[in-house]
């Protein structure tokens, strides 16, 4: 089968590999129909390199069950599924408390186990979520990032009528805008430096958009909220700058949720840090997309709202390509040579 393998920083190759085989009775093989590039894939491609040299990369996917292990009863060949890529150990203290997102040995496919940038992928049967006919494969490939965002929302006590700011209008931020509306936000403020992304955020539900190139985000938020700030601010950009600025957006007693991962040291100026103390903010870190019963209500609820077309991803997808175009697409993203939003690969397509 054909795959994308990551060998080093900015070194991803379209190569053949052996088709996976079922080795455990609880495993399934999925024929991959659609697989997306995650923001974390870009960071690893550009900055971090692979966990294991030459590993099949990728983890956001949907497909069709090809074969099942002998003890798998709830899935059968031909079933349409999305894949939860997270693999927990089941033995650490967190796993014993069913706190799977806090597993001490948590990993995902595409890291130390073969991933989904491939024609076929293997994973435990419990990691497959069956799809209704109304959810297409492109949408289902974004079930995992939607669940990531919802995992963060579930940590908060946000109520209908709240004001919510979303820092960053990439894929996670755009999903957060939509979830904010579903949670009943009165006003959603989308923040970015890219006017095209802000325009898309407005179409997907943001009431106001803020370009941080136009001045301090703090000043702009205060002007729009009559000097009060927002009830909840979500950091979805994953930059060292926004990870400090986000503390200034909340009103007293507000909450901040970190969804992004800044791959660098975050230096917080006194002005921003004092907001945590003086405004008595609640600060939440949100990691992965899983809970109990595994893979968690994040997946079930995301699928529900996708089926109801209240979480919409089609406008977020800018490129649909054969898997063979992977190396050049990753490099185009790294070089910022063209406007690129969500990229979906179709492994079964030829060149």
Automatic annotation (TrEMBL):
List the keywords (alphabetical).
Metal-binding, Oxidoreductase, Zinc
Q: Which InterPro entries match?
A: ADH-like_C, ADH-like_N, ADH_Zn_CS, ER, GroES-like_sf, NAD(P)-bd_dom_sf, Zn_alcohol_dh
| Keyword Plastid recorded | no
Q: Name one Pfam family in it.
A: ADH_zinc_N
Which SMART domains would you find in this protein's record?
PKS_ER
Look up the record and name the cofactor or cofactors this protein needs: Zn(2+)
| Protein family (similarity comment) | Belongs to the zinc-containing alcohol dehydrogenase family.
Q: What is this protein called?
A: Galactitol-1-phosphate 5-dehydrogenase
| Species this chain originates from | Halolactibacillus alkaliphilus
Q: What is the lineage of its organism?
A: Bacteria, Bacillati, Bacillota, Bacilli, Bacillales
């Amino acid at each position: 089968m054909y795959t994308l393998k990551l060998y080093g920083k900015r070194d991803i190759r379209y190569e053949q590999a052996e088709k996976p085989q079922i080795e455990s009775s609880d495993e399934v093989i999925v024929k991959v129909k659609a697989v997306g590039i995650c923001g974390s894939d870009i960071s690893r491609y550009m900055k971090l390199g692979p966990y294991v040299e030459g590993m099949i990369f990728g983890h956001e996917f949907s497909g069709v069950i090809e074969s099942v292990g002998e003890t798998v009863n709830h899935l059968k060949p031909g079933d349409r599924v999305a894949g939860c890529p997270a693999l927990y150990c089941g033995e650490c203290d967190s796993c014993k408390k069913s706190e799977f997102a806090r597993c001490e040995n948590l990993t995902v496919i595409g890291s130390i186990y073969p991933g989904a940038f491939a024609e076929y992928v293997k994973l435990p049967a419990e990691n497959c979520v069956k799809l209704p006919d109304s959810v297409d494969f492109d949408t289902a490939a974004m079930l995992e990032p939607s669940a990531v965002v919802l995992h963060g929302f579930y940590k908060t006590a946000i109520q209908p009528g709240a004001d919510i700011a979303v820092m960053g209008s990439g894929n996670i931020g755009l999903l957060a805008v939509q979830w904010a509306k579903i949670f009943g936000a009165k006003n959603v403020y989308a923040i970015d430096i890219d006017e095209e992304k802000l325009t898309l955020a407005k179409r997907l539900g943001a009431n106001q958009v803020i370009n941080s190139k136009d001045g301090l985000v703090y000043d702009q938020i205060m002007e729009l909220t009559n000097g009060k700030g927002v009830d909840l601010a979500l950091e979805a950009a994953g930059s060292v700058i926004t990870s400090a600025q986000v503390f200034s957006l909340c009103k007293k007693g507000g909450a901040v949720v970190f969804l992004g991962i800044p791959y660098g040291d975050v230096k917080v100026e006194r002005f921003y840090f004092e907001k945590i103390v003086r405004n008595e903010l609640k600060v939440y870190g949100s990691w992965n997309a899983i809970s109990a019963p595994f893979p968690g209500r994040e997946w079930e609820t995301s699928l529900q709202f996708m089926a109801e077309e209240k979480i919409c991803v089609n406008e977020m997808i800018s490129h649909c390509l054969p898997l063979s175009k992977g190396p050049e697409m990753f490099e185009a993203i790294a070089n910022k040579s063209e406007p690129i939003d969500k990229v979906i690969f179709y492994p079964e397509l030829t060149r």
